[in-house]
Amino acid sequence: MQAEPKKSQAGNAREGAAEPAVSLIGKEYEVEVGPVAHGGHCIARTAEGQVLFVRHTLPGETVIARVTEGEEGARFLRADAVSVLEPSKDRVEAPCPYAGPGRCGGCDWQHAKPGAQRRLKGEVIAEQLQRLAGLTPEEAGWDGTVMPAEGDKLPAGEVPSWRTRVQYAVDADGNAGLRRHRSHEVEPIEHCMIAAEGVSELGIEQRDWSGMASIEAIAASGSQDRQVILAPNPGARLPIVELDKPVSVMRIGEKDGGTHRVHGRPFVRERADGRTYRVGSGGFWQVHPKAAETLMLAVMQGLTPRKGDTALDLYCGVGLFAGALADRVGEKGAVLGIESGKRAVEDARHNLASFDRVRIEQGKVESVLPRTGITEADLIVLDPPRAGAGKQTVKHLAGLGARRIAYVACDPAALARDLGYFRDGGYRVRTLRAFDLFPMTHHVECVAILEPAEKGR
After folding, report:
1. Which of 40, 183, 275, 436 is the most buried (most CB within 10 A)?
2. Residue 90's closest CA among 152, 156, 146, 37?
3. d(CA 454, CA 452)
4. Is there a contact between 55 and 181 (Cβ–Cβ < 8 Å)?
5. Does residue 13 surpass a pLDDT of 70?
6. Helix (H, G, I), strand (E, B) or coil at 57
7. Which of 96, 104, 316, 410 is labelled catalytic?
8. Are 358 and 352 in contact (CB under 8 A)?
9. Mean pLDDT over residues 36-46, rounded?
10. Nearest 10 degrees: CA dihedral of 264, 270, 274, 276?
11. In this structure, are strands 404-409 and 379-382 parallel, antiparallel, or unpaired?
């Protein structure tokens, strides 16, 4: 039997190769803008029905949207509104000169009135609760409002200076700036409007930072401590740092990625609930100056701790909630904090050293908590990272029989998913509160208080 002749490799390649996708970047569409979506954009559709996620617009507007990412046949395209044909009544001229299509990616809603920003965030929370947890605002014990922080309720056109930690990128000419949206490109700036006064007064933007990849500027709100953390490019030498205010200097190690002291204190001091907290370089502390106190009060009001309670503070950071709980459960109570960051654990143990009833363990919650042998707790606080706690951790927590659980969330989608898991574990949402602790951006902070479902019947 004669064998068939082999096909050439070129022939095989031609027959098996898929047609290359056609990029739509730069293509413009006139669209009517629909509802807000999670992520700082609104939803629109092309005449052909393709979904557009459009930034720099507001619901109800008619705009020219220019595609920034995507190709034919993609599930969705990303776009910027480059021309507004029919504006919303909630639109204002962006106060920041660096806001707008193709510019700084730090703020999402500079073009919206402050009250409209909070309504948009509320709509996102409501949509995520319904879609991912099957909860209406009423079922979540939420009145639908997003509350501004004290002092942030300003007229349209004014911007609160709230960001106490700013991560600057450095361009090829040594200019400090901020990243453009979904890009590594740097937008050089002379001043960031949302930066706290303590950051702005350092004068970072007026210095030459050649050889640096990034600079993080920190201005503690609980003290006069100021700190900069420098990340040099490979092989670059640190500059002599002479800023407009006294400042401690840290550097990111090229080999180990750790944070190392150059001069000054390796930490800043923050205040909340009448207590001073040491926060080491790179450690987590809420960025808005009012956030730590606001969230601590919301959690304590929701939990109503009693003398003698046992409590868990999960993802405890430097001990903010653990300290507040320890004060309230008294000498016969007990608090266990779990945190994965080594430096944060050192800080938490230092911050809470005066409490014999507090223990801080290092490691991931999902690994450490089962090893503790704890089978019950009266109260639980969890403040997980943006991805949420996850199904297995929630299942474990629901089995501890806590009287109340406080869930602090910086991402509505992760919150909604985990609330669904808690429902499966026999817990219902008693109350939910939302706080606008990231003005001009799409981010929002929520505090949900949960209790066993049978109590709500």
Report:
1. 436
2. 156
3. 6
4. yes
5. no
6. coil
7. 410
8. yes
9. 97
10. -40
11. parallel
Name the residue type at position 86: E
Contact assessment for residue 438 and residue 445, using Cβ atoms and an 8 Å cutoff: yes
Residue 104 annotated to the active site? no
Spell out a b/e string for 387-412, using b for 16 or more CB atoms within 10 Å of the CB, else e.
ebbeeebbebbbebebbbbbbbbbbb
Question: Would you state the structure tokens that stand for residue 58, as one six-digit string?
Answer: 């507001």
> For 331-372, how does the pLDDT look when each residue is reduced to its tens digit (9 = 90+)?
999 999 999 999 999 999 999 999 999 999 999 999 999 999
Three-state SS at 191: coil
Q: In degrees rounded to 5, what are phi and psi of residue 407?
A: -115, 115
Residue 360 in 3-state DSSP?
strand
Q: For residue 31, give the nearest of 61, 72, 68 by alpha carbon.
A: 61
Show Cβ contacts of residue 324 under 8 Å, excluding neighbours closer than 6 positions. 272, 273, 296, 299, 300
- Rounded to an integer, what is the distance from CA 228 to the centroid of its chain? 21
For residue 440, what are the CA distances in angstroms to 66, 334, 383, 428? Answer: 22, 40, 23, 32
Answer yes or no: are the C-beta atoms of 254 and 269 closer than 8 Å.
no
The residue behind tokens 């109350």 is 431
Dist. CA 212–CA 44, nearest whole Å = 40
The band of 45, judged by pLDDT with boundaries at 50, 70 and 90, is very high
Nearest to 100 by CA among 181, 44, 34: 181
More confident residue, 132 or 255: 132
Q: What is the DSSP letter of 180?
A: B
Site of tokens 């026999």: 426
